[in-house]
Amino acid sequence: MCRDFVWGGTSEEVLIVSKADLAVMSKIRTRYGSFLTGEDYKRLLQCTGVRQVASLLSANPLFSGVLENMHEGIEHRGGLEALLKKAMYENLASLCRFDSAISDDLYSYIIRYIEINCVIRLCLRSGAEQTAAVRLTLPEYFREHIKLDFEPFLKSSTPRALLDATRELTIFPSIKRFYMSSGEDENLSVDFTGLEAALFSDFYDLLFKGAEKYDKETRSSLEKMLGTSADIHNLKTFWRCHKYYPESFTDIDSLVIHHGCHINKRNFHELMNSDERGMLAVLATTPYKSDTSDTSVRNRPFDSVLSGILYSRCKKALRFSQGTPAVLAAYVLLLKIQHEDLTTIIESVRYDIPIDQRRELIVSDVS
Q1: Which residues contact 271 (CB under 8 A, 6 or more apart)?
Q2: pLDDT digits (tens, 9 = 90+) for 179-214
Q3: 75 near 346, Cβ under 8 Å?
Q4: Which pLDDT value is given to residue 8?
Q5: Under a CB-based contact definition with an 8 Å cutoff, are residues 268 and 255 in contact?
Q6: Most buried among 22, 150, 179, 205, using CB within 10 Å?
Q7: How far apart are CA 19 and CA 1, in angstroms?
Q8: Mapping DSSP to helix (H, G, I), strand (E, B) and coil, where does residue 168 land?
Q9: Residue 360 and residue 303 in contact, taking contact as beta carbons nearer than 8 Å
């Protein structure tokens, strides 16, 4: 019997919750069995055009629903990528409907996660085209639960437009608090990097607080999964800023998630003074030493190595964890990694990157 939920209920109530819990875990693991296989990736890596990628994916039940009515002559990578994002959201919406019907409020965290992603996408690029793209990717379930007003973003991406558009979202307090504390000029463009950091920091605070209600075993497995996710998020943020934006350490430090983080300030200082090869050496001094011991990672981009660490640990959690929260968290992260891999393949095909180089950019197991 699963022991995720421990409160002062009767044995009958505990039994009902346990059965529901097992049903959710079974559903998640069955869904994961439909993910792309190594052979699927090998075929996709051989593609010579976007249309060929779409054709191969349309045979998979994870994507057939959104691709069945796709025009056969599609050549634009953006159109296919938007449809694949919709497929990912449809997958999560289906899990939310199932979980909300028989379990506790785990689905609410997914809704909040989708809210954050929608807001970030709209902040990156405003206007009718991007707004329409975000609308297109949202399944009916999320459109019903996410009260996002798209109209302000049709005109601009200023802080005022963001505040007007997000007043009904669950993450609105985080957005409002960010702008009140940062003193953002409402006539300027949105500080995307700072807002993203604030939203995810609050989100992880909420996740760790939510973990406190579970029993010791379930809480431990969930916090371990969340800690790994936070670490990889922080390292990717650092890598992105270090490579593309020469901020000081103080600036970068303000952008990381501190709750559950296992990467200390000394590690970040060492990373600042390293090239990508040196960054791997620094990573080997952290709790992720075992994940960097394989010599094959030395030839991979640093951000791809980070995704690979998360991928391997999520697979292990999804298979062996006995608590629904950790299994669900692992599934959501693996689904996101699969989507990122497909986006990488589409971009690689579109820009005719050699096949052997494409393989080095894929995180999922292709063996």
Answers
A1: 235, 238, 242, 279, 282
A2: 776 555 555 666 777 888 899 999 999 999 999 988
A3: no
A4: 33
A5: no
A6: 179
A7: 8
A8: coil
A9: no
pLDDT at 324: 87
Kindly list the distances between the CA atom of residue 209 and the CA atoms of 218, 223, 258, in Å, as whole numbers in the listed order. Answer: 13, 10, 14
- Please give the average per-residue pLDDT across 123-147, as a whole number: 79
DSSP 41-95: HHHHHT--SHHHHHHHHTTSHHHHHHHTTS-TT---HHHHHHHHHHHHHHHHHHH
Q: What is the pLDDT of residues 265-308, one digit of tens each?
A: 888 888 878 887 888 888 888 889 888 877 777 778 888 899 99
- CA–CA–CA angle 113, 92, 206 (5° rounding): 30
Beta bridge partners of residue 214, listed in sequence order: 5
Cα–Cα–Cα angle for 11, 17, 22, rounded to 5 degrees: 125
How distant, in Å, are the alpha carbons of 177, 190, 268 from that of 182?
8, 11, 24
Q: Hey, how many other C-beta atoms are within 10 angstroms of the C-beta on 171?
A: 21
Q: What is the DSSP letter of 254?
A: T
User: How many angstroms separate the Cα of 188 from the Cα of each of 21, 116, 129, 172, 247?
Assistant: 47, 21, 21, 19, 20
Amino acid identity of residue 24, one-letter, is V
**What count of residues does the chain have?**
367
What one-letter code names the amino acid at 140?
A: E
